[in-house]
Please model this.
Amino acid sequence: MTVLFDVFVLGRSVGRVVDYALADTDLNAFDYAMTSMLDGHGPISPARISELTGMPATTVSGVLRRLTGRGFVARRPNPDDGRSHLIVLTDHGRRETERARTAFGRVVTAIEDQLGERLHAVRARLQDLDDAVRAVAGVPLRPYRVTPVDIDVEQRLTVDQLTEVHQFCVWIQARDAVRA
Model:
């Protein structure tokens, strides 16, 4: 087995646990992830959603089309760019996100209780894995960072160093693509 298979299995388990917790709401795990992100960052452009989530623009479009059709989100003109639009939660989307947040909070608390003192170290290691995957995929680094609390900070790269490593990986991929 590989680390990517481990992450795949973990992702499936997380989805199942969250879907079960949200069973009494109108949102599944994926929908809740999107609506809660919109609740915290909206109004927001689809491009920014793509940046925050690492999802391709086409995937973001499909998700937004589905959530719009279900009445959870709406598109509004972007006052800063007449060629684009902003995504906002509707009143229905906000109500359902709040209902789901309560159920989701119980799951998060239970999982964090299971991790105990290891929580911050686990989150930091997940960030390291995310950084590596994004570098290989040529996707920009996550626009937010987890602050490591109980690990040796001096052994970690700074955001500037991670950005430099990412840019180097993108350059290597472009160079190798030209050679192929």
Remarks:
- Residues 91-115 form the longest helix (25 residues).
- The chain is about 65% helix and 5% strand.
